[in-house]
Write a structure and sequence with these properties.
- This protein has ten helices and six strands.
- By secondary structure, the chain is α+β, with helices and mostly antiparallel strands.
- It folds into two domains: about 260 residues, no CATH class; about 90 residues, no CATH class.
- The chain has a six-stranded antiparallel beta sheet with strand order 1-2-3-4-5-6, with no helix packed on it.
- The N and C termini lie far apart (about 75 Å).
């Protein structure tokens, strides 16, 4: 890139290191939390190991949209603050390089991450969210048979069964009892000496094959409180019988788009009027505006982070970072809850979504201008000092309390 100098590469290196660490740790923590719930659904099922990784892969775009802005913000805070503590920023200023010039590569980085966020929020998240839900539905409803335990009754749809000597690697078992209750349509009871499951190419339902068994079928369910004769039945032995496991309706998940979060930005724009399926026009509006604000927020993160990262060496860095993180977390929480309020029509979209964004943008640009183009004192310096004094007083009070308690115990 023309004009991309050694200084720019150095600044990017200082920012990208903590950014990458924060992004990696954030993704691992978020995916680990969801991994527990995924294992509850997939544990013990066929190909569960590959299904777990497939489900985690579908979750990466969702959590990447959460972790990426936070990682960028933390990378800026730690990277710029390290240069400030090591007097590197002082050396740059003394050599005629302004803070605004130093932040130029970081601004370009935020632009690139914003373009990536457009693709993630606008296209990747809707498709992967639907794929995740569809796979969870398929695993939960189609492959329940793979959770069977030896000597334990299980139910799949209208069928209740119990089997013995189960071999999961080959999907074979011995001695099965299967009862299919069809309500007024009767019932069917099957016993067999052996059986196995066969995967089907054109049908996600596994095929149940039974060998050397007996079948008893009732044409209707008997009515014990009436004088009607017993229902007709058929009975006989068989060498081999085949039947799909699970309901056919359970093999197909609902179409994508019933949830507005499964629609791409292009589909949200095209579906403004009339509303798509069960969603209302207002829900489409709120979802689209919320995604736009989430993407644009990444652009203003450098301007928000720099004033909190640059400071005097004697100032308390922890309190500066705490105030910055509180502001960012409060902003995202307000947008999330504001979108929920706007979705039900209790408040306009501009008030609950765009006003917080506008206030954060104005606040960030104002603080950035004061730090880069003026020599005025940071208005938050007194707040940092007050927090430090309060924390010190609280710590001192605890220490005195523990000393008194320790002296009292020793006197006894």
């Amino acid at each position: 890139m023309p004009g991309f100098k050694i200084l720019d590469r150095y600044v990017l290196t200082q920012v990208l290191k903590p950014l990458g660490v924060a992004l990696g740790i954030g993704l691992m923590v978020l995916l680990s939390e969801r991994l527990v719930r995924i294992l509850d659904v997939t544990l013990g099922k066929k190909n569960s190991f590959s299904v777990v990784f497939e489900l985690l892969g579908y979750l990466v775009p969702h959590y990447l949209g959460i972790a990426m802005p936070a990682a960028l913000f933390l990378g800026l805070l730690f990277g710029v603050n390290r240069m400030s503590k090591n007097s590197e920023i002082d050396a740059m200023l003394a050599s005629g390089i302004s803070l605004h010039r130093m932040m130029r590569p970081v601004i370009w980085l935020s632009i690139l991450m914003t373009l990536a966020a457009v693709f993630i929020f606008g296209w990747m998240q809707p498709y992967t969210r639907y794929a995740y839900r569809a796979l969870i539905y398929t695993v939960s409803n189609v492959e329940v048979f793979y959770l069977a335990e030896e000597g334990v009754f299980m139910q799949v749809g209208t069928r209740t069964f119990i089997l013995d000597k189960l071999e999961r690697k080959t999907n074979r078992f011995q001695r099965i009892f299967l009862f299919d209750y069809r309500g007024k349509g009767g019932a069917e009871t099957i016993t067999a000496k052996r059986g196995y499951l066969v995967p089907q190419k054109n049908d996600p339902r596994p095929l149940l094959v039974l060998e050397d068994g007996h079948r008893l079928a009732l044409k209707s369910w008997p009515e014990t409180d009436s004088d009607k004769p017993p229902p007709r039945f058929t009975s006989g032995f068989f060498k081999r019988v085949e039947a799909p496991i699970g309901k056919e309706s359970a093999t197909v998940f609902r179409p994508r788009g019933e949830d507005v979060r499964e629609l791409t930005c292009a589909e949200l724009s095209a579906s403004y009027d009339p509303p798509r399926r069960k969603t209302s026009v207002r829900e489409l509006h709120v979802e689209l505006h919320k995604r736009i604000v989430s993407v644009l927020t990444i652009l203003i993160l450098p301007f928000l982070a720099l004033p909190f990262a640059v400071g005097q060496r004697r100032q308390q860095r922890a309190y500066r970072f705490a105030v910055a993180l509180i502001i960012l977390v409060a902003y995202y929480e307000f947008v999330q809850h504001g979108a929920a309020v706007a979705r039900v029509g209790a408040a306009p979209i501009w008030l609950m979504i765009w006003l917080p964004f506008g206030l954060l943008a104005v606040f960030s640009l104002w603080r950035y201008w004061r730090v880069c183009f003026t020599i005025k004192q940071d208005l938050f310096d007194n707040l940092y000092d007050a927090l430090a004094r309060g924390a010190g007083a609280f710590k001192g009070g605890l220490m005195r309390l523990f000393r008194r308690d320790g002296a009292g115990e020793a006197a006894r």
